[in-house]
Amino acid sequence: TVSETANYLLGVGRADVTGPVAQVPLMGYAKSDQAGAGLLSRLYSRAFIVAELNNSRRVVFVSADIGMVSQRVRLEVLQKLRSKYGDLYRQDNVILSGTHTHSGPAGYFQYTLFWITSKGLIRPSLNSIVNGIVKSIDIAHENMKRGRIFINRGTVENSQINRSPFSYLKNPESERSRYSSNTDKEMVMLKMVDEDGQDLGLISWFAVHPVSMNNTNHLVNSDNVGYASYLFEQDKNKGMLPGEGSFVAAFASSNLGDVSPNTRGPFCANTGESCNNPQSSCPVGGAAMCMARGPGNDMFESTRIIGQNIYLKAKELYEKASQEIRGPLSSAHQWVNMSDVSVELDATHTVKTCKPALGHSFAAGTIDGVGALNFTQGSVEGDPFWDQIRDQLLGEPSNETKACHHPKPILFSTGEMTWPHPWHPDIVDVQVAVIGSLAIVAVPGEFTTMSGRRLREAVKSEFDSHGTPRMNVVIAGLCNVYTHYIATFEEYQAQRYEAASTIYGPHTLSAYIQLYRGLARAIATGTIQDLPRGPEPPLFNVTNLTLLPSLGAEHAPPNKNFGDVLQEVRQQYRAGEVAEVTFVGANPRNSAENATEHNFLMVERYSNVSGTWQGVQNDASWDTRFYWTKGSLGRSNVTIEWHIPHGTELGIYRIRYFGHYKKQLSILHTITVPFEGSSSAFGIT
């Protein structure tokens, strides 16, 4: 359908946020020994700008392939946008959302709790995220064109289970009976085209944890939703390498708090029997043995199966989308001190939120990733700074905090820990952006299925009762600042992982519902300017503070150079096999700290026509895997695998490696030197 008229100015952009792929812990499972050791797929920030045709109002939505948007990331991005664009892009009209992959580099937080498993605040990690998000917005900003937006929705099957079904059952039967499932299976999809009907991009919102890759993984990647983005972008950007091309497909997070992609459910790793019980516990080995299984034979295959399911549904919705979004843009935002909100439950009943605290089940983890917070057992002993941090963890919560969080047994009273900075945020963003008949509710964490349903319903009814009926309300998860989980009051009573991680106490959800209702009411009644701004969040004076090993001089083995082949490819392969080559390597962190978008590898095919080698895959491809192995004496190896897909063109190929090594010039001075290597040519027959 070619345009009658454009309704908006639209811009889309994509930029790299991968950062250091070695030695930095991965963010998500809170397992400090799960550090990066290579790359399966690149991480991207995907930005979408919608502006009114007269350019008066704008809304920016960003979905980044990271665990969550931290307050530090958000504040630094807003600072950079302010210095570039003045007050065009602000805290009210810019939504930053994380996809919630658990396989991206950590270290981009300013609150102390997250330092423990992240090994501190890691500047290269933070910079790559901040700069990549800003760059994706820059690209969208520079490519604004007249266009149209369509919305569609549909059901995604066989891609999720509720991982805390016993908590879900605590919700009132009268409420549960209104829903056919204990997860939200609906995908909401926005399709953006220019005024000639040319494809620009899409945003999909669907509630599922990107934890198909489990906590044994050490390769940086964007997990199932990232694979869906990759499939959609490869389909639309024909003939381009992964990560290139103008079409941008974001698969964004929603109310995924209790939703797992590991559809075969929880089994005991040692005996193979089901551990789908209220404690997620095994007869031998307890909860530590209970792990959920995905649909595939291994985590790589499970990631592809779930990602493909999500992609196929989005593709179908995209092709059939006909309901157009029209109407004005608006956005509302407040900062709120979440540790001190009074909630009016009814005319006679007022309750309060609490100072943040985590309950005992937080340390147990979930069936998607078993808890590993055993750092109190001296993993950093002997370092007075980290010893002091550990001593605080062992501090006793105040009686006030205990009473406020009841029935949560408090493990870490983070709201009462302030050294060297607060351990958890008090000041939290609440934000709603409206594009015509779509309201995007940007939430600072992981709402469970039922919490999300209650929030959507409350926001919708607020619009309904103030003259804006038929609003499409969608929840964007993991936005702006990370505050863990938001369970319902009833789920909170069960104190499983999601409830133990509802950090502001049993009335957290009620407080958010009250706050988001207020934002929706202000938008619907045109009174946004009367909303109090709220207390501004702090930006702590911490620039780089990390337990990461420093980058010292590196060496090749005797009589070898960096990039030399140590283990050669075979001469021939067939589709379905794995071509593998090992090089004299160097620490990939050198490359991340030297270049914003460094590509570590190319698979090239020899063209008889031109007599040249042509790139067919890069390190963003899901068919290539880049492994880094640290040796002793400043040595390391890099192994590159190409999992040759069926349908690969026959011919002559080679695999190339690009790296940087640190060279000692004098006692005080090292420089970073680029190098490359190549495998021998091999045939695909």
TrEMBL record:
Co-factor requirement: Zn(2+)
Binding, Zn(2+): H100, H209, E446, Y485
GO-annotated molecular function: metal ion binding; N-acylsphingosine amidohydrolase activity
Keywords: Hydrolase, Lipid metabolism, Metal-binding, Sphingolipid metabolism, Zinc
Domain Neutral/alkaline non-lysosomal ceramidase C-terminal: 517-683
EC number of the protein: 3.5.1.23
Residues annotated as catalytic: S260
Residue ranges constituting the Neutral/alkaline non-lysosomal ceramidase N-terminal domain according to the UniProt record: 8-514
A single Gene Ontology CC term: extracellular region
A single BP term in Gene Ontology: ceramide catabolic process
Keyword Hydrolase attributed: yes
Enzyme class: hydrolase
Keyword Hydrolase attached: yes
Catalytic reaction equation(s): an N-acylsphing-4-enine + H2O = sphing-4-enine + a fatty acid
Cofactor note (record): Binds 1 zinc ion per subunit.
Family: Belongs to the neutral ceramidase family.
The protein, known as: Neutral ceramidase
